[in-house]
Automatic annotation (TrEMBL):
This is Cytochrome b5 heme-binding domain-containing protein. Its cofactor is FAD. Residues 15-73 form the Cytochrome b5 heme-binding domain. PANTHER family: ACYL-COA DEHYDROGENASE FAMILY PROTEIN (AFU_ORTHOLOGUE AFUA_6G10880)-RELATED, MEDIUM-CHAIN SPECIFIC ACYL-COA DEHYDROGENASE, MITOCHONDRIAL-RELATED. Belongs to the acyl-CoA dehydrogenase family.
């Protein structure tokens, strides 16, 4: 075999990472610190694997495979991660997915079939866009929205119901009989893998909470039109309940709807913090009549409707809006559920919304833990990995106990959703779901605090090996930057049984 030859000068510009040889001078072109940082840092011509992973994620090296010039003779090169693969970090997957033969009463073959394909779709199609848009604050890209709609993912995120009629689910991967709230749970919890909280809300947030009142309470002709608009992604919808004056106290809303003699409503008022409101075409809007009654009107974007972005702690991709209605004319046929009190329409919507929030929250706790586990094994402090400190291992164990117990409760409730009618769910599950939301979000705040502790300064910065989180919003959901790669150490310092055998990721 003809071997490539190197001059001594050239060798000084090579570096070994994971038994692969890279050309440092090529790295220098993309490295923020330039060539001098790389040459001065005593890595040139050496095996820099350990130094590299002290400061970088695996994704960094995966991104630059084109800069690889060879491999070290006789050394085994670890295979690259297969896209969509189950994480090999212990407890990074719910137990039904974890390697080791766990049994579940809930998940069947079709759930596994769906999960496998769906995760691959998320990684291939959604994650790259989520990362780009989360940082530039733009709306989710058209090609992603179109694909989500074509596969009817957005429709499935609303759960079982008549809006699914006639729709092919995920290119026929599952049948209508197989679709159930556990498929919805898989989709919802997969969003944590985006590591992009604002993007996720921007992608489906408005539809998931804004469309169900239309599906359940609008007159058929209007319902079909709006469902098609929203689920095709062409004219999105949002839920406009909260106002500057009334948040928790929904019954205290002040947006006025005055009935005219020619069969219209004239709407005046403002709404605050409306997810995807900046881009929405339809607004499921809670209003108060002159009689003091609450009505829900479906308002179309047009004359008198103005939306402005509100800055939040997460990305502007969520499209969070301040909305003003200035003498907006709304046909009476756009009133939802004549005969059903407006407050009831709003309140029946909340349980599913809370279930979605809880599912997101618990999945994100798990993702945060995974980040912490990787970092604690990767980061050396005082000459030892962080994970060798008992206090750090105790925090990781506490995180696992928190999200695993929450997940078990969530799955128990989800199973009830599979068996109960919508009416039974409204009667029996509103309490447990609200309690779980209270419990999970409080538990997640403890995990957020522990995660910041484990990440140190990187716990509050945005770039590099950082962990971003904002435990301050209403459900204390938090976000992390896109996952670490390598677990740079064997898990031997950790005493949990499943850690010992974990391979590098
Ligand atoms: C990012 C984001 C997105 C949102 N998206 C939407 C959306 O799409 N559509 C929509 O309609 N709304 C949306 N909201 C609004 C959200 O639903 C409200 O923030 C929530 O209902 C709480 O209202 P508030 O913020 O006005 O708090 P307030 O009602 O002012 O309450 C302040 C605090 O007091 C507590 N509190 C209130 N009453 C009591 C009480 N009786 N006893 C003890 N404590 C109490 C509350 O829990 C809260 O912690 C969004 C908010 C955020 C932050």
């Amino acid at each position: 075999m003809a071997l490539k030859t190197f001059s001594r000068d050239q060798v000084a510009k090579l570096v070994i990472i994971d038994s692969k040889v890279y050309d440092l001078s090529k790295f220098a072109k993309v490295h923020p610190g330039g060539i001098s940082v790389l040459l001065d840092s005593e890595i040139a011509g050496q095996d820099a694997t350990e130094r590299f992973y002290e400061l970088h994620r695996t994704e960094v090296i995966e991104k630059y495979t084109r800069l690889q010039v060879g491999v070290v003779e006789g050394e085994e090169v670890a295979p690259s991660r297969v896209p969509g693969a189950i994480s090999s970090v212990p407890y990074a997957e719910p137990t039904w997915l974890a390697p080791g033969g766990y049994h579940s009463p809930y998940y069947k073959e079709h759930h596994r079939r769906f999960q496998k394909v769906y995760r691959r779709f998320v990684e291939d199609v959604v994650v790259p866009d989520a990362q780009a848009r989360e940082s530039d604050g733009q709306a989710p890209s058209k090609h992603v929205v179109e694909e989500m709609c074509r596969l009817n993912i957005l429709a499935m995120q609303i759960g079982p119901g008549k809006h699914l009629n006639g729709r092919v689910l995920m290119d026929g991967l599952i049948s209508h009989e197989e679709f159930d709230p556990f498929i919805e749970l898989i989709i919802t919890q997969s969003a944590a893998k985006l590591h992009a909280r604002g993007y996720n809300d921007g992608l489906g947030g408005g539809t998931i909470i804004g469309l169900p009142p239309v599906i359940n309470f609008a007159q058929p002709a209007l319902r079909d039109r709006v469902v098609e608009d929203a689920l095709s992604g062409k004219r999105p919808i949002c839920l406009a309940v909260t106002e500057p004056f009334a948040g928790s106290d929904v019954a205290g809303i002040r947006t006025r709807a005055r009935k005219t003699e020619d069969g219209y409503w004239i709407v005046n008022g403002s709404k605050k913090w409306i997810t995807t409101g900046t881009r929405a075409h339809w607004f499921t809007t809670a209003c108060r009549t002159d009689d003091g009654e609450i009505v829900v009107l479906l308002i179309e974007r047009g004359d008198g409707v103005e939306t402005k972005p509100i800055k939040t702690l997460y990305s502007a991709t969520a499209g969070t809006a301040f909305i003003t209605f200035d003498n907006v004319r709304v046909p009476d046929s756009h009133r939802l559920g004549p005969g059903t009190p407006g407050l009831l329409i709003i309140l029946t919507n909340f349980s599913h919304e809370r279930w979605v929030l809880v599912a997101h929250n618990i999945a994100r706790q798990r993702v945060i833990y995974e980040e912490c586990m990787k970092w604690a094994n990767q980061r050396k402090v005082f000459g030892k990995p962080l994970s060798s400190q008992a206090v750090v291992r105790q925090k990781l164990a506490a995180m696992i106990a928190r999200f695993e117990s929450c997940q078990s409760w969530l799955e128990a409730i989800t199973f009830q959703m599979c068996r109960m009618s919508p009416e039974e769910q409204a009667k029996n599950l509103a309490g447990p779901i609200a309690l779980l939301k209270m419990h999970a979000t409080r538990e997640s705040q403890k995990t957020a605090a522990d995660a910041v502790q484990i990440f140190g300064g990187r716990g509050i910065t945005k770039t590099g090996t950082s962990l971003r989180m904002h435990p301050s919003d209403e459900s204390a959901h938090f976000v992390s930057s896109f996952g670490h790669g390598a677990v740079r150490r064997a898990f031997s310092p950790l005493s949990f049984d499943r850690l010992a055998a974990a391979p590098r990721v």
